[in-house]
Design brief:
Order of helices and strands: HHH
Distance between the termini: 60 Å
Radius of gyration: 17 Å
Largest sheet: none
Strand content: under 5%
Amino acid sequence: MPANPKYLTQSIWQRIAKITAAILGGYFVSVSFHLALAAWFNRANILMTMAFSGFILWVALMVIAFLAKSGWKIWGIYLLLTLVFSLFIYLGQTCNPIAK
């Protein structure tokens, strides 16, 4: 049974934005989140957990991207989250450097 056309996105640019936000943006947020956790907590445990929870988070972010009304808005949110997590990574690396 096909989807009702009135619920589908009409603009090709919105479709492209949603698809790329789901795949790339969701991946960036998922990885940056786990790396930010690894910068502050036990790195080995977080990176081992990332193999499973990272995929689950990525799929959840994909679903959220397709539920959003605007592909550009979800891209903005995902980029903002990635930048915030990158800041946490930087601060974690600065405050908790790896001793070798």
